[in-house]
Design brief:
Layout lengths: L1 H19 L25 E3 L5 E3 H4 L4 E7 L4 H5 L1 H12 L3 E7 L6 H11 L4 E4 L4 H6 L3 E2 L1 E6 L4 E5 L14 H11 L7 E2 L4 E2 L4
Parallel strand pairs: 3-4, 4-5, 8-9
Antiparallel strand pairs: 1-2, 3-7, 6-10, 7-8
Length: 203
């Protein structure tokens, strides 16, 4: 009888031990499931500019839309677009669409971002994404890479600014067309066009 109770007690203890064991949370099979997709509303975030002043996405949104462009100080492709990015800011700022630059390169410190913007005449807000958390959230891979949010904060375009690194050879301007569509209250025809440039140097 004692032997029976001992075996039963051992089995009961094993059962409780198995029940108490909590398996670690599974890792998402698709890492991109958590990133921003076309049609989704961009979550708010806060990043510092090159002087250290904090800015939330909500505070930078234009009344009609917001263009976010991941940029670099060293990438020749990104630098080839400096004048075009500034022209986007100039042309659309008065029409209620703000342009925001984000530098997520681990190899480009805030001081360099500040001096680069001054040297190249970039007057739109430039944020520093240390640790590339926002680049990861947006799944940004290269510089330059553009994202257009409509007035409600929904992502309506993601991809390249236009089709040529050489400004004189541009034959299609997808980002500018998308902004014009948003301002006119029309659907964006091309919602995603693969961006090209230098890879973001993650830390």
């Amino acid at each position: 009888m004692k032997k029976f109770f001992a075996v039963a007690l051992l089995a009961l203890c094993s059962l409780f031990a198995a029940a108490a064991f909590v398996a670690p949370a599974p890792v998402a099979a698709d890492a991109k499931a958590a990133t921003l997709a076309v049609g989704a509303v961009a979550p708010d975030f806060t990043l510092p500019d090159a002087t250290g002043k904090q800015h939330s996405l909500a505070s930078l949104k234009g009344k009609s839309g917001t263009v976010i462009i991941f940029v670099s100080t060293k990438c020749p492709v990104s630098n080839a677009y400096n004048a075009r990015m500034q022209k986007l800011a100039d042309d659309f700022g008065a029409r209620g669409v703000n342009v925001v630059g984000i530098n997520s390169n681990a190899s480009e410190p805030a001081a360099e971002v500040k001096s680069h913007a001054a040297e190249k005449g970039l007057t739109f807000t430039m944020l520093k994404d240390a640790g590339n958390q926002i680049a990861d959230r947006f799944d940004a891979q290269v510089t330059p890479e553009a994202y257009l949010l409509d007035a409600s904060g929904k992502l309506v375009y993601h991809g390249r600014i236009d089709n040529s690194r050489n400004g004189d050879s541009v034959t299609s301007s997808e980002l500018r067309d998308a902004v014009e569509a948003v301002l006119a209250g029309r659907p964006v025809e091309k919602t995603e066009v693969k961006a090209f440039g230098c890879s973001i140097k993650r830390g």
